[in-house]
UniProtKB/TrEMBL annotation:
Matching SUPFAM superfamilies: Porins (SSF56935)
Sequence segments annotated as region (Disordered): 1-27
Sorted UniProt keywords: Cell outer membrane, Ion transport, Membrane, Porin, Signal, Transmembrane, Transmembrane beta strand, Transmembrane helix, Transport
Basic residues bias: start-end ranges: 1-21
Gene Ontology BP term (one): monoatomic ion transport
The species this protein was found in: Chitiniphilus eburneus
Subunit record text: Homotrimer.
Protein name: Porin
A Gene Ontology term for the protein's cellular component: cell outer membrane
GO molecular-function terms, A-Z: porin activity
UniProt membrane topology term: Multi-pass membrane protein
Transmembrane portions of the chain: 51-71
Length: 428
């Protein structure tokens, strides 16, 4: 499953760490006296005489002295195609509630992300910045402008602040550098954290000799006491990067699935919710590190989840539900990588430990995962990849993961399943 997150495949090799060169509009004549795109002279090779060219250029030069300057606007994004085969797939339930096994299935998924962003230098020296983002060619999330991102902010020596619909920085940290190379479904897309804040306020600090931090807060709807907040921090020196953070939400939780805070049917949309006397709460904190040395890299992370007033169950062969005041568990991740030429190999392992509810373990509710990815650079902007991941579920894993989609379409009957995927990614 392709995550809602921003894909970071462009960072897998030194070649792809660079942004692609800007695309030049065919036959645009940019005039140095003004940056406005409205006064560019667009000239074609055919059907335009030298006299007409001189007239168009002269008119554009004259317009420079009268036309206002416009803010910079950038269009970019990425396009990804995935074709994959998954074993032990779910076919839902029969009329009597019995789980149905669909065997193996071939599937495909296309993810095209379009980002439109802009900035304007203010007279005070600060910068006003904004962003709109959409994920097209998918029918289940981010398919409307602004659902993925829609925020406006200000940047200066003090750092930067943003207001509006934006990704959780805690989630983005789980997504990269930890939840990529096939490990995202358990690390980035599962847990007690949130993906997105539709009514978010964020602060990003300047860089202090390799250290920076960020804080986010979601206002809720204004007609209740629901709220969410988080703090994240990063430190880098040489080839070592250390990341950590904490995320907490009152009044809304989707259990083991990471979704946008207060989700109301659609991604990027907060709901109308009020905090009851025993409202659900969700807290996650993590620490991780990545070290790059030569052509090798190693990544490791630890995360702890806590929920309050959340009821578990409803899938697999597990009990129908397990209710309790406090639920918690731990999660561990490790991955090693090697780059050579146009190739990159990565092998990883994850453990989602048994859930504990009010001090009592739910036996065999753990999940283990082994993942492998081979990347091959097609150009400075594009990469092809082969990805394999194998999931091993305890007998009661269905208590913690009530949706088949959370573990690669797992049928809830077998104790394992596998996904084999080939795909391509390109940035623009």
């Amino acid at each position: 499953m392709i995550s809602p997150r921003l894909r970071k495949r462009a960072l897998f090799s030194p070649q792809l760490r660079k942004h692609p060169p800007p695309v030049k509009t065919t036959q645009d004549v940019a005039l140095p006296c003004c940056r406005s795109p409205t006064i560019r002279a667009r000239l074609s090779h055919q059907g335009t005489t030298p006299m007409i060219k001189r007239i168009v250029i002269a008119a554009a030069v004259s317009a420079c002295f009268a036309a206002p300057a416009f803010a910079d606007v950038t269009i970019g994004g990425s396009a990804e195609m995935d074709l994959f085969y998954r074993t032990n797939q779910s076919d839902g339930r029969a009329a009597d509630g019995t789980l149905q096994d669909a065997g193996g299935r071939f599937l495909e998924e296309i993810a095209i992300v379009v980002n439109v962003s802009g900035n304007d230098k203010l007279d005070s020296g600060a910068t006003l910045e904004w962003k709109l983002a959409q994920k097209v060619a998918t029918d289940y999330r981010y398919d409307s402008w602004g659902q993925r991102e829609a925020w406006i902010g200000y940047k200066g020596d003090f750092g930067s602040v943003r207001f509006g619909n934006q990704f959780s920085n805690f989630y983005l940290m789980q997504d990269w550098p930890y939840g990529w190379k096939g490990q995202g479904n358990l690390w980035a897309d599962a847990g007690a954290h949130y993906v997105q804040y539709s009514r978010g306020i964020s602060y990003f600090s300047p860089d202090f000799n390799g250290f920076n931090f960020a804080a986010q807060y979601d206002l809720g709807t204004g007609d209740g006491d629901a709220q969410a907040y988080e703090v994240t921090a990063n430190y880098s020196v040489g080839g070592l990067s250390i990341n950590g953070g904490i995320s907490h939400g009152d009044g809304y939780s989707a259990g083991s699935e990471a979704v946008n805070f207060g989700r109301n049917g659609a991604w990027g949309v907060g709901g109308n919710y009020n905090v009851a006397d025993e409202q659900p709460e969700a807290t996650a904190y993590m620490i991780g590190a990545r070290y790059v040395f030569g052509d090798f890299n190693i990544t490791g992370a630890y995360r702890h989840h806590e929920w309050k007033n959340v009821t578990w169950g409803g899938w697999g062969v597990a009990p129908a539900s397990v209710a309790g005041g406090k639920s918690e568990n731990d999660q561990f991740l490790i991955r090693g990588g090697y780059n050579f030429g146009k190739h990159a190999l990565n092998l990883g392992y994850q453990l989602w430990t048994e859930m504990e509810v009010d001090g009592n373990d739910i036996d065999d509710s753990d999940v283990q995962q082994v993942s492998f990815e081979w990347d091959y650079s097609l150009s400075k902007n594009s990469v092809a990849f082969l990805q394999v991941r194998y999931n091993m579920m305890g007998d009661n894993a269905g208590v913690v993961f009530p949706g088949a989609y959370q573990i690669d379409g797992w049928n809830g009957i077998d104790d394992n399943n596998m996904r084999i995927l080939v795909g391509t990614w390109t940035g623009f």
